[in-house]
């Protein structure tokens, strides 16, 4: 199961309450190491396979400072590459509210500036975890949804779309922008999650409310989507984490204190369930016959194909 070199939404910080927790990302065996301080918890992500004899350091390992005691032979394993000691590799991480992101590659490869952009996106905002579910679908289909404009009317009942265009940016992100034409302001008309369908299409009134739609893919498996009036709109962050048991889909919403984030979270969960009904019966191996209406999907799939892959580097230092 191949992995890319960019950013993943590894999960929500509430998932990791123990000092060490095992995590699978594709074929990679990782661990989240939680540390406590007066400023609150902090999190590091590292390889979990002991370089001595292959034990899982996250299962029974004891954290001692910047080391983990291996549960198999009691060796002290350093967190972070070390030239003279048994050590495991650590990875770049970024935490925003409950979201923990990780990037597997070193250097600039696969780095699309997510930490800097998310610091700006979350400054002065609330961040609320909305969806956390395991789905049997290839991870790329989840983020592709933001670029598959043709599915919005069919699956989600959006009455009309206008001007949807995709652009690959110099920073390595892929964006799509345009307009949703809906019945009402999407976020402030929701009373219950089930009202999503009413606002999108069940009314008899014409779709005249123009909501600016924008999505930014920071990697093939992380996308931030917004639609509204274009100024401080709520943002929906979707991450798709490939695991041996399926794709772990997590969604969080970002907004100002006055935004109804709980309602947006309910609507986001409803939308994922609507997509899941289609994903459950997909044939990912089927041959595709694409046409001009699939321009944005083709742009996303080209982005996935061109995105740098992650080449694992195993640390096999010898204790001295």
UniProtKB/TrEMBL annotation:
<dbReference type="Pfam" id="PF00355">
    <property type="entry name" value="Rieske"/>
</dbReference>
<keyword id="KW-0479">Metal-binding</keyword>
<keyword id="KW-0472">Membrane</keyword>
<keyword id="KW-0408">Iron</keyword>
<dbReference type="InterPro" id="IPR015881">
    <property type="entry name" value="ARHD_Rieske_2Fe_2S"/>
</dbReference>
<keyword id="KW-0411">Iron-sulfur</keyword>
<keyword id="KW-0001">2Fe-2S</keyword>
<protein>
    <recommendedName>
        <fullName>Rieske domain-containing protein</fullName>
    </recommendedName>
</protein>
<keyword id="KW-0560">Oxidoreductase</keyword>
<dbReference type="InterPro" id="IPR036922">
    <property type="entry name" value="Rieske_2Fe-2S_sf"/>
</dbReference>
<dbReference type="InterPro" id="IPR050584">
    <property type="entry name" value="Cholesterol_7-desaturase"/>
</dbReference>
<keyword id="KW-0812">Transmembrane</keyword>
<feature type="domain" description="Rieske">
    <location>
        <begin position="7"/>
        <end position="102"/>
    </location>
</feature>
<dbReference type="InterPro" id="IPR017941">
    <property type="entry name" value="Rieske_2Fe-2S"/>
</dbReference>
<keyword id="KW-1133">Transmembrane helix</keyword>
């Amino acid at each position: 199961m191949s992995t890319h070199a960019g950013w993943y939404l590894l999960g929500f910080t509430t998932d990791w309450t123990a000092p060490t927790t095992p995590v699978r990302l594709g074929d990679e065996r990782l661990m989240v190491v939680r540390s406590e301080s007066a400023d609150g918890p902090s999190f590091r992500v590292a390889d979990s396979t002991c370089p001595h004899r292959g034990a899982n350091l996250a299962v029974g390992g004891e954290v001692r400072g910047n080391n983990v005691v291996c549960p198999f032979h009691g060796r002290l394993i350093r967190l972070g590459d070390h030239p003279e000691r048994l050590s495991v590799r650590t990875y770049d991480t970024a935490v925003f509210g409950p979201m923990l992101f990780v990037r597997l590659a070193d250097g600039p490869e696969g780095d699309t500036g997510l930490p800097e952009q998310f610091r700006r996106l979350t400054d002065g905002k609330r961040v609320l975890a909305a969806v956390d579910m395991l789905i049997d679908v290839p991870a790329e289909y989840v983020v592709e949804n933001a670029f598959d404009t043709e599915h919005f009317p069919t699956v989600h009942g959006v009455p009309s779309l206008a001007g949807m265009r995709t652009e690959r940016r110099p920073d390595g992100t892929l964006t799509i922008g345009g307009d949703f034409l809906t019945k009402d302001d999407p976020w402030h008309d929701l009373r219950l999650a089930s009202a999503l369908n009413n606002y999108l299409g069940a009314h008899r009134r014409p779709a005249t409310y123009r909501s600016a739609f924008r999505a930014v893919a920071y990697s093939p498996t992380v996308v931030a989507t917004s639609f509204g009036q274009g100024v401080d709109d709520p943002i929906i962050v979707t991450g798709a984490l490939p695991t041996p048991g399926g794709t772990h889909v997590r969604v969080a919403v970002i907004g100002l204190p006055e935004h109804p984030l709980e309602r947006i979270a309910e609507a986001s969960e409803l939308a994922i369930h609507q997509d899941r009904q289609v994903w459950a019966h997909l044939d990912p191996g089927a041959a595709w016959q694409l046409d001009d209406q699939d321009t944005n999907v083709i742009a996303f799939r080209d982005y996935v194909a061109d995105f740098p892959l992650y080449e694992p580097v195993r640390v096999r230092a010898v204790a001295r």
